[in-house]
Amino acid sequence: MSKTVDDVVESGGIEVIIQNESEKTAPRCPHGPALLFEKTGHGEENGRRFYACSACRDRKDCNFFQWADEKISEARMLAREEQNRSKKPLFTHQQYCSRFLEFASLPLEQRRFCVDCQLLILPGEWTNHTKHKALSEDVTVQRLKKPSLLLSPLDNKKSNAQYLFAERSCHFLLDTLCTLGFRKLLCVGTPRLHEVIKMRNLEGKSPVMRSLLLDIDHRYCQFYGQDEFCRYNMFNHHFFDDEEAVKFFQGFLLEEGGEKLVMITDPPFGGLVKPLANSFSQISMTWKHLNKVSDASAEMPMIWIFPYFFESRILECFPSFSMLDYQVDYDNHPLYKHGKTGRKQSPVRLFTNLSPKDIILPEAEGYRFCSICERCVSAGNKHCPKCDTCPSKDGREWRHCDECERCVKPSWRHCSSCGRCALPDHPCGQRQTGCFKCGSQKHKLRGCPKKHNKRMLVSDDHGAPGLSKHKAGKSRAKNKRKRRAT
Known about the structure:
Structural class: alpha+beta
Strand order of the largest sheet: 13-12-11-10-14-15-17-16
Largest sheet: 8 strands, mixed
Number of helices: 10
């Protein structure tokens, strides 16, 4: 019997190995080339490698698994190829575009959208959807221009969650970038922003901006042509339409006629940071090559939208980035909405290699300019003379701890036993330490002297695809056994 990801981990750590040159030889699941992982246990010199889906961390979404040293039979390979084919969209991108033109030419009373299939259906297909839910009214041209309102948002936060920007955040981003002179936007996983750009161009109230949407959701093939949308997996830098999509992508990256380009991305919050950073780095390198940028340190202008508690991981990958205080909010997220205060406010921030002093945050929304830091910050983010920075990450006023020699959250207190600041009710003395590679308590895996130096090994607290739920389940089962024993 073949193993699944859930069968792999009982203890130890998981590392993802970034090897771009091996993408062509990596096995594939419906989401493109799989990522290579390595499982390491306490005291183990070398772990065993395996492949798992790049996009889905929950095995119920994609249970692809293969040991790296495993020999796959021809029968199993054929079955896998058939499985991958069965998961492909119903139509090619060109066919979707042709269908859209035919659909848009129909009178309003003949337009049907199947909610179950998430598909624009033509009159000859109605009988195939009679038992499905159908949005048979108000499929107007205006609604076709706003597909994010017509389509049901995907809600799996571990793989393809679609939390759509609120209008406030969209217009702030576009107004800011327009002021900075950008006229081309590469929208990676930001369908709402791409949509608003097109609407603003039609209204003619602001300078025209061109945009290309890269997203894994094939449903957008129904609404956008190949020059406006490429189906793309940001976790493995994979274009699903291969050469055709890559051609449009590379053509868009060219800054012809002095059109400045910037990339904006809003990945799923449960995604692995290092594979994402690797994909974005490859996009940046392609931009440099196509535009013949000779400066080795130059980077493509980027804005990465992610929760503030990922700051250290993002800065580890992109040292040139800085985090801005601007709070991004979403229309369809239960918590991340504008106007909430305290710990209920949105933790989502902008990470960018653009100059922070050039990005002016709206004073009416509670931001101010710190002349010492030379950047806009939240009104509650008070400058600390001891740290010489505005230290708050969550919008609240932080306080300085002389023992820790840094500013901490207002709810934290210094614990003399632990020698650090923490919540008053923290489990004193139970801080997790140690290295998964060699078992030493003197360092973490990242600083292990036994770690291989000739390959790019990166660990992530999220673990490999499908592992977080498994480990939580193991822990709950273990606790139940303990309770029974007592």
